[in-house]
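Whiteboard transcription, Tuesday session. T.W. wrote the structure tokens on the left side:
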């Protein structure tokens, strides 16, 4: 190995999917694989998760990539479509639509005769981003139901803004608002993301405020990849297994004298004679520049603090206290021994951003 590799474990993805099913028994699962399956590889993850009820992406391009990769499952585009051309693509590639704005309904009403597509009506119950406002929900539903470009059996969807905060009352309020928007619903309903699935049973099957005759759908993203959606509960506590292990080779081990500095800006100075491992990994691979302060890598099972700045292609770790580190050894940047959540915290960001920032020069290796 001479560069960074993201080892992706199929069994972890499948095990995390089993955890989704355990948390949401009887529910349909829409596996969220947008943004290159959170960096894990779009088509490969779609194949590994075959058997889910649907796959969800954020962009029409991602949906097309799935179809061109031979994926035949139901595909939902969470951002829907924006113009006539995208609607044409959705029809050509059989992509289910999320209808979140009135201009989309206008376009559907004006659409040329052709394939009718299944659609989800998305209500803004408090995220304040995409969605039809709750008082316009009924009218939007009626227009969509009358529209030949939309197949019968429209689903109802909303997205939670604060489900990762288990002390917040926002999630209950959002579910109430959805119920008020929809009244009695003769179709499927989908509310819960990962944090909803693991923290808010009412979001899995929101039947307290809403009566509906269809299926309940959950939309897990992060938890499928084995990462905790909660700041104060680890993935292992939640029974999740990280699917990605990001690994880099040690390409040099240097002896530095006390007083010598390491890296750009000479921000780290050895306070003793030190042994420094140089890894072929940097922000050009997706290791965050800001991870330098306080973060560590794991080499041969032992933790070694990152010292100096992370550069584009290299980073340096203090291995003075480790035994026998040599060029060719493998360092883990995140994975089992060092959760991506911890690296994200050191870098002042969220694990979502780190996973989706693994760059294209990193090879994905799929193992069982
Ligand atoms: C990304 C996304 C999800 C998945 O969220 P996680 O927090 O990763 O589980 C679900 N629904 C919608 C609409 C999304 O955009």
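and on the right, the sequence the group agreed on:
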């Amino acid at each position: 190995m001479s560069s960074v590799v993201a080892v992706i474990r199929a069994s972890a993805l499948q095990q995390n999917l089993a955890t989704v099913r355990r948390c949401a028994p009887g529910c349909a699962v829409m596996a969220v694989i947008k943004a290159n399956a959170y960096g894990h590889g779009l088509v490969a993850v779609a194949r590994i998760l075959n058997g889910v009820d649907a796959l969800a992406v954020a962009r029409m391009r991602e949906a097309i990539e799935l179809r061109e990769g031979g994926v035949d499952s139901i595909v939902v585009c969470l951002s829907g479509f924006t113009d006539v051309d995208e609607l044409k693509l959705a029809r050509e590639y059989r992509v289910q639509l999320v209808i979140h704005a009135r201009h989309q309904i206008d376009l559907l009403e004006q659409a040329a005769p052709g394939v009718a597509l299944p659609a989800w009506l998305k209500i803004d119950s408090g995220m304040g981003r995409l969605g039809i406002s709750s008082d316009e929900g009924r009218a939007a539903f009626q227009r969509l139901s009358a529209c030949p470009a939309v197949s019968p059996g429209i689903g109802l969807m909303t997205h939670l803004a604060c489900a990762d905060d288990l002390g917040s009352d926002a999630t209950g309020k959002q579910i109430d608002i959805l119920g008020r928007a929809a009244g009695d619903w003769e179709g499927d309903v989908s509310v819960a993301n990962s944090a909803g699935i693991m923290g808010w049973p009412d979001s899995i099957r929101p039947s307290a405020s809403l009566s509906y005759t269809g299926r309940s759908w959950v939309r897990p993203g992060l938890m499928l990849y084995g990462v905790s959606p909660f700041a104060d509960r680890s993935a292992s506590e939640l029974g999740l297994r990280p699917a990605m292990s990001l690994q880099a080779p040690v390409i040099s081990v240097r002896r530095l004298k006390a007083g010598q500095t390491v890296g750009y800006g000479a921000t780290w100075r050895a306070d003793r004679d030190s042994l420094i491992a140089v890894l072929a990994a940097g922000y050009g691979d997706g290791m965050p520049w800001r991870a330098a302060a306080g973060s560590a890598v794991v080499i041969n099972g032992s933790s070694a603090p990152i010292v100096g700045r992370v550069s584009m292609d290299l980073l340096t770790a203090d291995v003075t206290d480790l035994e026998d580190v040599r060029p060719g050894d493998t360092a883990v940047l995140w994975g089992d021994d060092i959760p991506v959540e911890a690296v994200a915290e050191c870098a002042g960001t969220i694990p979502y951003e780190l996973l989706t920032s693994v760059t294209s020069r990193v090879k994905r290796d799929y193992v069982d």
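Someone added at the bottom: The CA atoms of residues 290 and 347 lie 5 Å apart.
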